[in-house]
Specification:
alpha/beta, Aspartate Aminotransferase, domain 2, Aspartate Aminotransferase, domain 1, 2 domains, 7-stranded mixed β-sheet, 3-stranded antiparallel β-sheet, 12 helices, 14 strands, 36% helix, binds pyridoxal-5'-phosphate, DegT/DnrJ/EryC1/StrS aminotransferase, PyrdxlP-dep_Trfase_major, PyrdxlP-dep_Trfase_small, transaminase activity, pyridoxal phosphate
């Protein structure tokens, strides 16, 4: 029996060819293809929001936090449930992470709890579209507007997705995408930051390259360095992969959407399982997590917890006692396999194993 893995990287053939072509050009570090990838991202994903390509989503998040003006002593209301790199760059800025609870029936941030956690020290709101289920952006934006706060979206799981007919990446002040190895669109490692205010783009590009403005002139340092920057740029090898994969994104997404709807169709009537969804991760809630996992393992099917409540990590200051929904579901969530090499039959089989496990 072939093992069904939780993840499996998908690199389209066109992306492999693009990498080989790039390796034979004078630019393999940041060069013309990075600029082309940004243009294509704006055309297909972020529209009037400007795109800045970087080496990872974590870098994109850090740049967004700097551009949002987050500094030492500030508070940032952020998701308790996410991959920790949503929240760690808040600590780079020496600000405090204030965890907002998940919603009762999902792993996404609860807008009502965001509103409760805002204080006079709050500098920004951060959200993550967990597993590819869009957050309640209109409610979140309304809260942000009321308090004059920027919204930063961690869209690591949400490349190509839409919220109420608007593309994620074209909605709030900053959106950060991940092209890490197993993401829906991968460049092995890479990320994209999209920015609403065009006046911030020059600074973002300087921050990604040591604080200097890259130029083709003789004196590449002519404009000097007035702010400490980082080495956060994307390579042309990654950009070449990204351009090719972005051209195929509709096809890739369609495949993931088919898997998600097959999960939904086959899981919703299993008593003891609540289907949460997700285009990128299939998230379920169940009281019988161990029983299900045991059965899946017996059938060579991987499942996993993938992420965890971030107050588990002492760097954030210890466990909080004001996220009751997280307390209720922390032992109930489970992630099922989703990737390009699975088909409908695999998903039906996975659901059948779960159904039998709960009989
Ligand atoms: C929700 C979330 N945010 C951020 C990241 C960080 O992405 P990267 O590895 O591109 O820095 C990940 C990575 O898996 C993630 O899952």
């Amino acid at each position: 029996m072939n093992k069904i893995t939780l993840f499996h990287p998908y690199v389209p053939e066109s992306a492999k060819r693009a990498v080989l072509r790039t390796l034979n050009t004078p630019w393999i570090g940041q060069g013309p293809q990075v600029a082309e990838f940004e243009k294509l991202w704006e055309k297909k994903i972020s529209y009037s929001h400007k795109a800045v390509a970087v080496g990872s989503c974590t870098y994109a998040l850090h740049l967004a936090y700097i551009l949002a003006g987050i500094r030492e002593g500030d508070e940032v209301v952020a998701p308790i449930f996410t991959f920790p790199s949503t929240n760690i760059p808040i600590l780079y800025q020496r600000a405090k992470v204030v965890f907002a609870d998940v919603k009762k029936d999902s792993l996404n941030i609860d807008p009502n709890d965001i509103a409760r956690k805002i204080t006079s020290k709050t500098k920004a709101i951060v959200v993550v579209h967990y597993g590819g289920v869009p957050c309640d952006m209109d409610e979140i934006q309304a809260i942000a507007n009321k308090h004059f706060l920027p919204v930063i979206e961690d869209a690591a799981y949400a490349t190509g997705l839409t919220y109420r007919d608007r593309k994620i990446g074209s909605i709030s002040d900053f959106t950060c995408f991940s092209f890490q190895a197993v993401k829906l669109l991968t460049t092995a490692t890479g990320g994209m930051l999209t920015i609403k205010d065009p006046r911030l783009v020059g600074r973002a590009k300087r921050l990604r390259w040591f604080g200097a403005q890259k130029s083709d002139s003789d004196d590449r340092w002519a404009k000097g360095i007035t702010e400490v920057g980082y080495r956060y740029q994307m390579t042309d090898i990654a950009a070449a992969m990204g351009i090719a994969a972005l051209k195929e994104l509709d096809k890739t997404l369609k495949h993931y959407q088919e898997l998600a709807s097959t999960y939904e169709k086959n899981l919703t009537d299993i008593s003891g399982v609540t289907y949460i969804g997700g285009i990128f991760l299939c998230v379920i809630l169940t009281q019988n997590r161990d029983r299900i996992r045991h059965s899946l393992t017996k059938h060579s099917i991987e499942s996993g917890l993938v992420d965890c409540r971030n107050d588990r990590f002492s760097i954030f200051g210890g466990r909080v006692n004001n996220c009751p929904n997280m307390d209720k579901i922390e032992n109930k969530y489970l992630i099922l396999p989703t990737h390009y090499f699975l088909n409908k039959k695999d998903v039906e089989f996975i659901c059948q194993v779960i159904r039998k496990a709960l009989k």
